[in-house]
Amino acid sequence: MKHIFPFIIILVLFSACDEEVKPLEFKIHNIDTAYEANITVAFDEAKKNKELSKTINKAIENAIVKTVNSSENATDLETVLTNFNNEYLKFKTEYPEVSEPIWELNIETELTYQSEDAITIAISTYEFKGGAHGNDQIKLLNLDAKTGKTLTINDLINDINGFKTLAESKFMESIQEDDTSTPVENIFFGEPFQLPENIGFSEEGLILIYNVYEVTSYDLGYTEFMIPFEKAESFLKLH
Fold first, then answer.
1. Distance (Å, rounded) from C-alpha 101 to C-alpha 232?
2. Distance (Å, rounded) from C-alpha 237 to C-alpha 95?
């Protein structure tokens, strides 16, 4: 027995180390609750590692909550959905004569990048409460893969000014393929180039996304471009 016991210890330690280096697994979680409003929700949820998964899943939920316009007083997704549905029911009661289409709230996420250091999840939200069109936006959520901490641009980039110069050149390349005469000030409403709020990772490089109304006009929708890793590497804190 004394010969077997050390061997068991080695196996346990090896198993623990093996578990530690395995990346988190994500599965799509669908909320199937029936509402009067047209509400659909499908988001990535981390599995297996209990503590880390719990931290990451809470960060994802918090980020989703912040993207919904009806969620100012809500701290969890279930309340956000209930509030949206109640708001729709109240509208129908107060304005029975208004023949507007059913309200919509659609939320979905996509895991765009995962490594030993970082995880990026794109959160897409669409809200429609009548009128000419709905409101949609994309949020890129960056997380520390080891702790679940939400990463800011200062956690990702070591030289903001240098990266901004690089991003401006790539941005102008992406929008001026057909028109090389558009001044950058016309795109940023009279202001010089600004980095977007949404910067995250993909398998090929950094994604930069301007939501509707952040640049140019609503008709042009999202403005998105990518900086390959080989161009951005010198500016990254994570490698």
1. 45
2. 54
Question: What does the alpha-carbon distance between residue 73 and residue 55 come to, in Å, rounded to a whole number?
Answer: 22
CA angle 160, 214, 122 (to 5 degrees): 75
- What backbone phi and psi angles, to 5 degrees, belong to 14? -60, -40
pTM of the model: 0.85
Contact between 105 and 89 (Cβ < 8 Å): no
Tens of pLDDT, residue by residue over 59-114, are 999 999 999 976 567 889 999 999 999 999 999 999 888 777 899 999 999 999 99
